[in-house]
Design goal:
The protein is an alpha+beta fold. It has eleven helices and ten strands. Helix 1 packs parallel to helix 4 and helix 3 runs antiparallel to helix 4. The chain binds 3,4-dihydroxyphenylalanine. The site of 3,4-dihydroxyphenylalanine has 12 residues, from strand 9 and strand 10.
Length: 339
Amino acid sequence: MVIAGGVEPQIAEALAAARAGLVAASDVDALRRVANDHAGKGSVLVGLKSSLGSIVDIEARKATGRAINEAMQSLEALVAERLVALERAAAGHAAANEAMDLTEHLVRRSRGHAHIVTQAWERLEDVFVGMGFKVAEGPEVETDFNNFTALNMPPNHPARSNFDTFFVKNGEPGSALLRTHPSPVQIRVMQEWDLPIYAVMPGRVFRRDTPDATHMPVFHQIEGLVVDKGITFAHLAGTIEAFTKAFFGSEFTSRLRPSYFPFTEPSAEFDVRSANGKWVELGGCGMVHPNVLQAGGIDPEVYTGFAFGFGIDRMAKERHEVADLRDMYANDLRFVRQF
Ligand code: DAH
């Protein structure tokens, strides 16, 4: 039998136990469970409340009822307060987890990056696209016709020996080869694209060279081709100069020196003056030979054009001051990770 006065300590005890449980609950689910144990059906406080009727003295019954209500209210307030705190902590936890994910992501990203040849290739494309050129690519296994004959090097032309290369068994013997330059893509573009043409053609090329500090049998070049009405040598020189400034920086300049290539007439080699005043030879260029325009299906009486070509690996080598080209292909991560 419960009597007034005897209940107060039980309320205090139930309240203390409930508070301790709520404070100890480490997540929202645990909090709900503890709240139910101490203030839900079957809890000590609810039990005391339902036995209020057994308190005979009215004043004592009222006082006890008030005490139980106050205890319940204070528990409710504590539950609400703990709920906010736990939710905030959970959100903080999630944020911390995300932050860790990000770190992992950064660590993973720093594990690899594009090879310096790829970097140079992509930058070259960017600069030329910025100047209004489109990018074209052709196959690495080419026809003898596109690689030589169409470029004004018919069979037995002496210039062919400069490009001694690997032939591939495909069709007529000697008709398919690993291309020695991306210049055959000029022919493909002239045959396939609408005029006028403003194209750059990057790609992998092959020569029968023994590897040394400045040669590799497999390397990369980028070719340029412009065909339009009224194109002159001045456009070629201006384009080379604009490219030089855009790619290397405004303090750089270019020059053209007379040279010979079968596919251009007149032909030139172009050099770039680096920051230390040294001239570095970059590549070849010239006005597209009328025979080449004709091989591409273009009337040289109506259209003229210029072309240029240079090595991408050499650009990377110059830019990063790599002493030996072979280091760029040795697959040594200690080398690759420097850039
Ligand atoms: N194809 C030449 C080479 O591999 C480079 C070249 C020179 C390309 C002059 C051209 C050019 O388009 O006009 O050495």
